[in-house]
Predict the structure of Flagellar motor switch protein.
Amino acid sequence: METEEQKKARKARKKIEMQRLCRMLDIEGWEQNESIVKEVRAIVQLGKTQKKKPINLSKN
């Protein structure tokens, strides 16, 4: 379980990563444009590996 401090730190890291990406793309005012925010979040998520759920092949 994630503590409140860990959650704040994770959100801060994500915002810094999004800011860095937007600077690389030279996008100003990205925080006010929801479509850009969604696209950036999707790109940031692609860079992370998702935990895969184990597949239970046996049926009981």
